[in-house]
Amino acid sequence: xxxxLNASGGLNAGSKDNNPPQKGALSVLMELKLTELRRLxxxxxxxxxxxxxxxDKTANELTRAITDYIRLNGGYxxxxxxxxxxxxxxxxxxxxxxxxADLHAVIAGRHVSIEIKIxxxxxxxxxxxxxxIIERAGGLYYVARNFSDFFSWFxxxxxxxxx
Length: 163
Fold this sequence. Notes:
CATH topology: Trna Endonuclease, Chain: A, domain 1
Number of helices: 4
Number of strands: 8
Distance between the termini: 34 Å
Strand order of the largest sheet: 3-6-7-8
Order of helices and strands: EEHHEEEEEHEH
Structural class: alpha+beta
Strand content: 15-25%
CATH architecture: 3-Layer(aba) Sandwich
CATH class: Alpha Beta
């Protein structure tokens, strides 16, 4: 068991493996996207709309699903590129703070950093340090291993705010 940060921001023991994805959560995301496309392109028939297929099997797919879900629910989300660049024949180190999460979001006025982990991938010491800094500053830190768990966490937080 590795230590992961849970939805409330505390450290919990968690499974290293992804939970089996629920098709229900990804289906909800696809329906939200289709609704948005219909709104943006009211004169285009459904068969001609560019349908987005979502998955959470890879880090890139999970990142896209989470980013779109936050945006489609009125939040702000951006992907953070932490790698350096190859320039003029040499590698130039990136300037992003070591341990910065993959996604930075604002959901209902609150900062949320989201780290994407697939399979046996685990948080580095620098990521754990950044998570604690974000929490001390009043933000949330979430480790996403699959879309279903993120979907449940996100909607539970919205339910809490709506009550």
